[in-house]
Amino acid sequence: MDSDPKKALRKRMKALLAGMDAAEAARRSTLAGRHFRALSDYATADIVLAFLSMPGEICTETLVEAAMADGKIVAVPRMETSPADGDYIVFIPLPRDYRSWPLDSYGIPEPPADAPVLEPRELGAARVIVATPGLAFDRRGGRLGRGKGYYDRFLARARVDAARYGGNLVACGICYAAQVLDEAPMGEGDQRVDLVVTEEGRA
Predict the structure, then answer these.
(1) CB-based contact 171:194 (threshold 8 Å)
(2) Which residues, 6+ apart, have CB-to-CB distance to 157 below 8 Å?
């Protein structure tokens, strides 16, 4: 038996997601996106930090398109690295023609290196809702990511910036109902989300 509860749960959740029927996954993804857009925190948000889904993730395509149609600034992550900060993510506002961006190894449009970045002060002063990916969540905001810590580090910094610059940041986990557990294993440095939505509504 695997002694690492995070590793074992990641393996189980990846198998669950890989085995989901494509049409059913698309249907549930669309419903989850509608519930996300029904949140009061979405209605008041200036900026939606989303992600472009890779295989084995809830699909955000309809959510992203709808948020852009709603007049929101929609931004997606780009991986960065520096000697001082190590690996981290920044968020790039999506232009209307983002589908013309070069594709990464998963076939997902990838923000170009010269695309403008939302700066910490800009995010910190705004009303922001984060569509936060994860392999598993619980109803108390516990989140299990893929093990790289990108979102944990980002949320920790962004929450400090929101407090400093007077904005408001709400982290909302978005996933399938089958990914919501009684308890997601958490470690030191792991960031909780403020709420979770699935195809069934708020978890």
Answers:
(1) yes
(2) 120
**CA distances, 28 to each of 13, 39, 67, 126, 176 (Å):** 16, 17, 18, 30, 7
Strand pairing report for 136-138 and 180-181 = parallel
Q: Are 123 and 171 in contact (CB under 8 A)?
A: no
SS3 content of the chain, % helix, strand, coil (to 5): 35, 25, 40
Nearest CA-CA partner of 36 in 111, 130, 99, 137: 130
151 near 195, Cβ under 8 Å? no
Closest CA to 186 of 6, 4, 2, 3: 6
Which residue, chain included where needed, has tokens 């809830």? 58
Residue 141: count of CB within 10 angstroms of its CB: 18
Query: Residue with structure tokens 């800009």?
Result: 122
How far is Cα 91 from Cα 83, in angstroms, rounded to an integer?
20
Q: What is the pLDDT of residues 118-177, one digit of tens each?
A: 999 999 999 999 999 999 999 999 999 999 999 999 999 999 999 999 999 999 999 999
- Beta carbons of 126 and 167 less than 8 angstroms apart: yes
Neighbours of 103 (CB within 10 A): 10
Instruction: Compute the distance between CA of residue 18 and CA of residue 178 in angstroms, rounded to an integer.
Output: 13
Per-residue model confidence (pLDDT) at position 1: 41
Q: Tell me the one-letter amino acid at 90.
A: V
